[in-house]
Amino acid sequence: MPAQPARGDLVPSAVLGLLGTRGPLSRAELARQLGVSPATVTQITKALLARDLVVELDQVPSHGGRPARRLGLASTGWGAIGAKVTADHVALVHVALDGSVTGSSVHAFDPDAPHALDALAVLLRDAVESHDGHLLGVGVGIPGAVDSQDSGTVEAPTLGWSEARVGRALRSALGVPVLVENDVNTLAVAERVYGVGRDHGSYLVATIGRGIGCGVVIDGALYRGAYGGAGEIGHLPMSVDGPACACGGQGCLEAYIGQAALERAARERGITDDGIDALRLAADQGSADARALFAEAGAMLGQALAGVVHTLDPEVVVLLGEGITAWQYWEVGFAASFRRHLMPSRRGTPYRIDSWDEDKWALGAAALVLASPFDQTGATGDQGSLVRERLHAGPSA
Amino acid sequence: MPAQPARGDLVPSAVLGLLGTRGPLSRAELARQLGVSPATVTQITKALLARDLVVELDQVPSHGGRPARRLGLASTGWGAIGAKVTADHVALVHVALDGSVTGSSVHAFDPDAPHALDALAVLLRDAVESHDGHLLGVGVGIPGAVDSQDSGTVEAPTLGWSEARVGRALRSALGVPVLVENDVNTLAVAERVYGVGRDHGSYLVATIGRGIGCGVVIDGALYRGAYGGAGEIGHLPMSVDGPACACGGQGCLEAYIGQAALERAARERGITDDGIDALRLAADQGSADARALFAEAGAMLGQALAGVVHTLDPEVVVLLGEGITAWQYWEVGFAASFRRHLMPSRRGTPYRIDSWDEDKWALGAAALVLASPFDQTGATGDQGSLVRERLHAGPSA
DNA sequence: GACGCTTTATTTAGTCGCAAACTATCTGCA
DNA sequence: TGCAGATAGTTTGCGACTAAATAAAGCGTC
């Protein structure tokens, strides 16, 4: 833990990143947001202005003092590519620095195939080559544990990957910085840059969908755990025995309210045999059974998240994931359960639902790259430094 | 989040603290332990040597290179006072920088009394005045939530305290730095300096006793949560309904395996009416019922801690608390349950039992002060800076 | 016992970012 | 009109720490 971490030009990158993700800001605003002194911002921006990376825009009307002169990025051509890997496809998005999606695609993918990593590399190389503008890097979201964003060695049972050297393989194939991270954590990072992280330093991002996951952000930094496995709330033990879970345990949260569990329950209760979408449709059409099933799941989620809140005491909990589209039915059970299982002093802990669309996973992966200018903890490693270097070098390519 | 936090002379304090808590070290060792460059250590130690705060000791035989010259503290007269406040007494210890106890005492205390804070201040003032050597500060451990170590405003239902301004009151009464912290967190900090924290950056300290608690240390820093309430695992919801808990909820972990719950179960099962010590005695004497009761508690603790491990992915879990004296009986249920509820990839997470004696709570509180030279996060606030200042000023008083 | 290797400690030159003092420019109020 | 107060931005000098080069002092080995 270096007192002053060896980080090449972190603040300039952070300035560029902030201007890119938040739009034009005054110097004073930059200083406040980044927690550095105004003096430093003056120095940094002076250099960036001289190098034409930043331009002085308009002057905003005063609020009882000298008017602020806003700064903006000289070039808005910066962007990143995000990829989300699942058991049957890869979703790709091209994202600009401000978070806007400039293109997206979905590709069939078989992670069990002999040269799956090579196939992934090919997919991504095409995307890199077709990228319009100056590419800062590629972010990859994986449903599994990643030892570090930097090395990107992956343990992902659902993909059949063990000790897969995803980061290394892609890096050498693509020639641009590649950051690999657990998929839920990418969403947490995205919230840091574009969502709740603007107003809160410590929060949880819980996802409901195929699995149940949780990203932990503490004081603005993603907490990954000792071995990159923090936030595995899908396997919180909810009962001593209970249904068998894919992880080998019994009574895991996911074995109760994961997508597969809900689909099985829907079958057993005679609601539908056609999967989760049909179940939601049934609820939409007024099926009391379907609604009850979601409400029960919501209640259990509430109980589990109450426990996590007791453990971590976050400022706010964000709920996300593909399952969130049925949230109105989950909430019926969740709201009461969550409050009831919280101790009185925590009962005020707010939760928020973010909007969802299919791109969001991949978008989160791209956010990994776009957030790396803000990384003060070194979590992004060498690849993060490379991203900052490219940002620093300017859109010359 | 300042990139370079405003901290007055942090490294010199850390050097002194490290020499005090770990004994003589070479410069190279100091550099490695503190994560600073050898150059810095040379500069710092040069200054400290010049001011006679540090002395050069012997030269240790080489291991294939230039022999290391070890440095030690010139004065070992530094110490701190630790206080643990409970519902019926206050335990005090005087502790030297190296963690050795130089004196201890226990005083009756009624936190519900009208001027309880004043009474506490009187107790502590006597201790401060009678302290032998140079006092760095006073640490106070409280069974409740503390907003920050610095301000020390306390929310402690078990003491009947709400918004009690403990820190402020004691500070003005004592005239030395006062750090206030949740009691479990003080143990976590003590482990950081004297225990498992020497070898591990991220760990949990779980306590069993009157309550069930947990301290969270992440990358060497105590994680306190957004409102100082992290680690309240005593109120993890273990079931949808279940026994009523003092917190107002139902089915909390503590309502199953806290001291009061165990004592009630012992009564109901006809094992003993005489409290927890009698229960352990019964187990010692071979009572199968008593042993089963502990084993059941252990099993539930294992399940709960497995969940916490899934959430936080620590390197190691340390078990502590006054209840740990009966650990041999807990363990029967704990070991299997903990492993069984962990997912395969976490099943290797080790747990350790620390020895226990009654001073340990107060000792933890003292460690709060003795660890403040290592605080890089600013968690100790102004009071921490004051401690560092006193350390820096030398044992002149 | 000369050479290479390892580890420890120091020196030097330089970077990063801060605090403090300052200037600049506006609002509001008497 | 003029001054207090607020907010924005700049300049200057400095403290803390680093990286890189160097010196110091031992070990092993042929």
TrEMBL record, chains A, B:
Pfam families for the chain? MarR_2, ROK
Q: Which InterPro entries does the protein's record reference?
A: ATPase_NBD, HTH_MarR-typ, ROK, ROK_cs, WH-like_DNA-bd_sf, WH_DNA-bd_sf
| Family per record | Belongs to the ROK (NagC/XylR) family.
Q: Which residues form a coiled coil?
A: none
- Which segments constitute the HTH marR-type domain? 14-55
Annotated protein name in UniProt: ROK family transcriptional regulator
